[in-house]
Structure formats: structure tokens, C-alpha cells
Amino acid sequence: MDDAFQVPSGTPQAPKPERGIACPRCGCCHLRTTHTEPLPSGRIRRRKVCRHCGRRMVTYELPPRLVGPDR
Ligand SMILES: [Zn+2]
What we know:
This protein is 6% helix and 30% strand. The protein has a domain at 24-66. The longest helix is centred in the last third of the chain and has 4 residues, at 64-67. A hairpin with a 5-residue loop joins strand 2 (44-50) and strand 3 (56-61). Strands 1-2-3 form a 3-stranded antiparallel beta sheet, with no helix packed on it. The relative contact order is 0.24. It has 71 residues and is mainly β. Bound molecules: zinc ion. Residues 23, 25-26, 28, 50, 52-53, 55 line the site of zinc ion (ZN). The site of zinc ion has 8 residues, from loops.
């Protein structure tokens, strides 16, 4: 199973898919997305910056259509 980085973005209770991502330095969840780039593999790479300490991080997300193979 490849459930490494699946986010439940199809549920109405989760408007933001990056709810489980926090800053590794200060632990806050106030991250600002500075760049979004779709990769050729189908994933979405997003660069985020912490609004508190300025720590930069990169996340790789899967679009909802590729997460569920059998619906
Ligand atoms: Zn931070």
C-alpha cells in the first residue's frame, strides 16, 4: 500500500489538505504556501514558509483522483 502522504481532501470537514503539517522548528501550523508546482509524476509540490520563524519546507501531495483507484 502506498499511503505515505495521503490527505483526505475529499471530506467536507477538511477544507485544507495540509492540516497535519506543522513547522519542524517551532511546531506551529501557520504555514504560507509560496509556490505550487505540479510534477510530471502526478504529484503536487508545494513550498511553504512558516509565518513565525521563517522555516522553509517542501511537501508532496497527491491529487484526489490518484488516491482512490476504486471508487
Ligand atoms: Zn516555525
